[in-house]
Design brief:
Number of helices: 1
Helix content: 10-25%
Number of strands: 8
Radius of gyration: 19 Å
Strand content: over 45%
Shape: elongated
Oligomer: single chain
Strand order of the largest sheet: 1-2-3-4-5-6-7-8
Length: 107
């Protein structure tokens, strides 16, 4: 019985890892913005209250912060601020990506 358990343990652990990554993908929305400067892909994970994106050629994970209007995510240097279908990205209070828009959804 112990040998069977030892043989099955790696498979069980791999299954748990696969399940966790599956659940993570299910909780993540990918948004494709078109900004004045360049396109921006943002991955929003609502349960973790995180937004991840590539800024200055580096992957960044921003945590959700307080916002009077819209949604605001920051890491202390970068701020991603979205409201409706538009967004702006700041670096130390300076706009680096402006007029970011999600494409219109055809119905």
């Amino acid at each position: 019985m112990k040998k069977l358990l030892i043989l099955l343990l790696p498979a069980l652990l791999a299954g748990c890892s696969y399940y966790n990554s599956f659940v993570e993908r299910m909780n993540t929305d990918t948004l494709e913005y078109q900004c004045d400067e360049k396109p921006l892909t943002v991955k929003l994970n609502t349960p973790r209250q995180e937004a991840s994106m590539i800024l200055d050629n580096q992957p960044r994970v921003l945590k959700q912060g307080l916002s009077a209007s819209g949604a605001r995510y920051t890491d202390g240097v970068y701020v991603f601020w979205s409201k409706g279908d538009s967004a702006t990205v700041y670096k130390r209070d300076r706009i680096i990506l402006n007029n970011c828009q999600l494409p219109a959804v055809e119905r």
